[in-house]
Amino acid sequence: MKELNTKRFRIGVDIGGTFTDGTLVDSSTGQVITSKVLTTPADPASGFISAVNKLLGVNNDVEPGEIEHVVHATTVATNAIIEGKTAKTAFVTTQGFRDMLEIARQIRPSLYDLQFEKPAPLVPRQLCFEIPERLDAKGNVVTPLDEKALAKIVDQIAETGVEAIAICLLHSYRNPDHEQKVGKAIKAIIPDVKLSLSSEIVPEFREYLRASTTVINSAVTPIVSTYLASILEKLHSANINSELLVMQSNGGVYPARSASESPVFMVESGPAAGAVAAASLGSALGYPNVISFDMGGTTAKASLIRNGQPNITKDYSVGGAAQSGDGAFGGASGYPIRTPVVDLVEIGAGGGSIAWVDSGGALRVGPQSAGADPGPVCYGLGGKEPTITDANLILGRLDPSYFADGEISLDTEAAKKTIHKHCAEPLGLSIEAAAHGIIEIANTAMVNALRLVSVQRGHDPRDFILMGFGGAGPAHVVRLAEQAGIPQVLIPAEPGTTSALGLLVTDVRMESSATLIVRADQVELSRITDEFERLEHSGRLAHSSAASASGEPIFERAIEMRYWGQSFELSVPVPDRKTINDDWMSDLIESFHESHDSAYGFRADDEPVELVNLRLTTIGKIARPQLRKLDIINPDIKVAIKGERPVYFANESSQGGVISTTVYNRQKLPPRSTFNGPAIVEEPDCTTVIQPSWSVTVDDFGNLLVENNQ
To answer: What is the pTM of this model?
Structure first.
């Protein structure tokens, strides 16, 4: 009798600015296979399928039918907004509010910058339309919807040839009836248009934030839906017909079908994957408090994980200057979105970040990047300007013949020439000193990012372990820990593709909300019960459509609260009680006081508390691959030594900063072995630089635990 095939695999693909990373995990054994290919900016889907095909080519035993699901993280939505390549979109709102997108908010990201200009609205004024209708703040009809005026406006919109329409009527979060009627009228005349209703996307108060979120959703829907359709077509051509899941900004995943309809939830898809990977791996290894540092070819991302969970925020903007921090002014320079996002700081410092000398004669690094096309000068693909990768190569930290598993041969002489021309000669420095300056300037910017997510949030970075990954992260992370005063660093196995692995260690998550805006001492508790039950019913329906989620859904409830009279609220998990009663409310209010004290340093027990929004997260659990222990074949660390080479380390020796450094092959490092820095650890997808005065221990799973000996 023929044995049934029980092999099951999962694939994760993360498209970055420079490289596209793929991960194949055996669901039963935990074995991990990775791939890394250059990103194809003109057609990201091509890079996606190249990474998948490379994975399947490495492991010829995998049959397409054995793949449980494919998970994808992408920045296609963000790039469309940043590059101004969104779809032609119309905006429909209540009469008198046509200029809502133009007026936006009366705040600025830099208070004294007289040259600051708000980004142009995603929808020009001539494509903004008003409809005679009005609801009050309780959802009652003040002015009935004018059906005749609506018919004329729909005809006007049809003549504009727009691809998408965003509808945001005043107070529709209380009563969606008018929005639904407008949507139905538009679909009857323009059936193929992509339609977004604010009462479905983000049913919360604050008109401009709700309108901005809905407009962003509409503006990127045609682009994202076309892109995901292309991905699915390429997967089907490869006979992979399993479910395609997409990473959300909140660290969960949702089906591609949902992503095509509500892409605003995946704006920060790529960066979230790295934070999820760090949280999962840290918890599994006994490190629930982690600072995640993900450095790729274009950007570096830092996030803070406490008790195994990344911090989630809703104060986020896309398409503007880099911002950080919760609160009223977080991300004021771009287009605000009111969907849950992993709280992280992202800066323009990656392996491809360009070094340049400004008009004042100061050496600068980034935010411009050489990306994948043309890439750093040393790639030999047409790059002309010096980058961080070129500097690392000159300092001896990279092996020119062993980069990307030898698939890319690095040109050291070309790197020296470009740094001499653009940096060393203008500054009167040696090539090595200029290269070292490039690295240290980039490191300083990245240390500031680490402090933004830790010290600025009220956390001591010394209480956390720093986890470094990404193609360029391990080359910098130990030096960053040294400068930030963090005593321990963790370099995961396969660090170059950790973000792609993060796609496979998360769950299906679906967010929903309802606005209350009522004082805690005046609310009817039955109303809270009814609203949560309504949200849970919707969550169950959404969960049933996710093929990869197993078992019953799990619900996480939270309430956004504030002191009466405040403008901004804090999210507080609800008490773990079966019944919503007076004791439940007392526990909830006390939790809010404690959260306020933690966030702002004080509590006001005598002030009335207001309940603003109810939030429900529906979680569909996905079985996670287990960590795989390595076999100890040869316990002698000498088998991993590849040789020695001179490496420049910040004047650490009397030889002008150059030290003869041992180079290790990471794939041959025995579990539980130890060695001291300075050292270089090489593997196919990245290089790890161990600074002097640091020691390394290899754990049972192949992770590197790096500790400061001083």
So the answer is: 0.84
